[in-house]
Amino acid sequence: MPAKRRLLLIDSSDSARTILFKEISSRAPDLDIIACGTGKEAMTAVKRYEFEIITTGITLPDTDGYQLIEEIRQTPKNKDTAIFVVSGDTDTRVMGAGMEDTDAVTAYFDKAEGHRSLVNFILNFLGTHNELPIKILYVDKSATSTAITTGILDKSGIAYIHFRDAAEALECLKQDLAADANCSFDVMITDLMLTSKTNGYELIQSIRNELGLDYLTLPILLMTIEPGEDERTDFTAIFGAGTNDFITKPVDEDDLLARLQTLVNIKRQSEALNP
Questions:
Q1: Burial (CB count <10 Å: 0-12, 13-18, 19+), residue 135
Q2: Edge-to-edge, what's the strand order for the sheet holding 53-56?
Q3: Can you tell me the distance from the alpha carbon of 123 to that of 87, in angstroms, rounded to the nearest whole number?
Q4: Helix (H) or strand (E) holding 85
Q5: What is the mean pLDDT of residues 69-82?
Q6: pLDDT single digits (tens) 88-147
Q7: Which partner from 11, 117, 152, 192 sits 20 to 30 angstroms from 70, CA to CA?
């Protein structure tokens, strides 16, 4: 997947930072990790880099952890970054009682669970755990569109299963759920125009309603054609059917990979926060 992935660890304890840094580095060698011991160091980092996750303790040598989070939320690069508070002290502000922005803290992690549990939590959230490979279910009857899309997936090392028919894709999902009671696919890509019997909207509705796979359990990317000059994109139909996102054909490689990364993150974050 594209782009350098970064993690910021903020902890006043030198030993805690070292342990986490070594453990995460060994399991996710491609992850760029920056470890800071003070709020000042952390703010220098968040102003310079964009992070996927920031973890911080509550008590730092030069600031309160929650004050630091509020400052981080004011920076353009990390205003929407996932932030985990790591502490052995349950604080009511984690639940939104004392912070102006109730979404400022993404999740709370109890330090008493140990550093390995924290590492697993972080890696599952990022989707870098070796036991959670990226797996795409792709549905498209067009030979040209399929060749372009699968070429991008192959080039990027993304595993996928391709079907031309909506019924076959549904049966695949049913068998997948029957095998483990969980959806093993990270994202489904489907074209809008499938067969005369079932279009992309109907396939998505069947997945959401009949199979009970929601937006977090199986994010869906819908492929559509670019609307003509006198036409409009039907956002109501696209999102009303249960689509997470859509992309127009012919697909651009960078655009497709970026959208897939976002959708994979959605599933990973859901899994991390709802184990």
A1: middle
A2: 32-36, 6-10, 53-56, 82-87, 107-110
A3: 18
A4: strand 82-87
A5: 91
A6: 754 444 443 344 444 588 888 888 788 888 888 888 777 644 333 589 999 999 999 999
A7: 117
- Is 178 exposed, middle or buried, given 0-12, 13-18 or 19+ CB atoms closer than 10 A? exposed
Answer yes or no: are the C-beta atoms of 190 and 171 closer than 8 Å.
no
What sign for the dihedral angle of Cα 115, 134, 153, 243?
negative
CA 223/CA 249 separation, integer angstroms: 7
Q: What is the pLDDT of residue 99?
A: 45
* Residues sharing a CB contact under 8 Å with residue 148, sequence separation 6 or more, in sequence order: 250, 251
Q: Which amino acid belongs to residue 219?
A: P
DSSP classification of residue 252:
P
- H-helix segments, the chain: 14-27, 39-48, 65-72, 115-126, 143-155, 166-180, 200-209, 235-240, 253-273
> Residues 157, 161, 165, CA angle at the centre, nearest 5°?
145
Token pair listed for 112 = 């008493």
Summarize pLDDT for 3-29 with one digit per residue, the tens.
Answer: 568 999 999 999 999 999 998 988 888
Using CA atoms, how far apart are residues 85 and 181, in angstroms rounded to an integer? 31
Tokens representing residue 170 in the block: 């549904």
* Domains in the chain: ranges and CATH: 6-126 (3.40.50.2300), 135-273 (3.40.50.2300)
**How far is 74 from 70, CA to CA, in rounded Å?**
7
CA distance 163 to 187: 14
